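If you are new to this repository, start here. Below is one unmodified record pulled from the training split, so you can see the exact layout before writing a loader.
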Amino acid sequence: MGDAVDLIAAAWRRERPDVDVAPMEIIGRLTRLGRLIDLEQREYFARHGLERWEFDVLATLRRSGGKAGLTAGDLNKAAMVTSGAITNRIDRLAAKDLVQRTPDPDDRRAIRVQLTATGRTLIDELLAPHIANEERLLATLPPADRTQLAALLRTLCESLGDTALS
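And here is the target side for that same chain:
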């Protein structure tokens, strides 16, 4: 049967048999899979009145623990976006009463971003259904395959500089 990447790779093998397109088969599938998952998650979050990035920021704040919140810089590192983009995201979430800015008690120049009660309730209510949705997306893979895939993807992420210390 095959997938779209099989067709692309076969065409390249026919047209350029001198080039090994095996890397394209992995990168192409990762790229296509990323898009497919992104679409699925956008639809899921839209049903809950959120954008995917909104869930990501709320989840980052929630899993950070403590009530002190995070600085915009901390959120920026987690989101991998520009400082202007994170400021815009914080503004939009604050307008929805999901986060609030508070002065940092240890540094008068810094501002911390915290979940509001509404934001905390929302993220707590959505976490389990979100995980169930991800489970649905992975349902075709048995547990052993998932474990192996997670390990392989971790190795690839680390090799490209995406580490816990980044």
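Two things worth knowing about this chain: Residues 17 and 95 are 56 Å apart (CA to CA). The chain has two domains: 1-47, 50-159.
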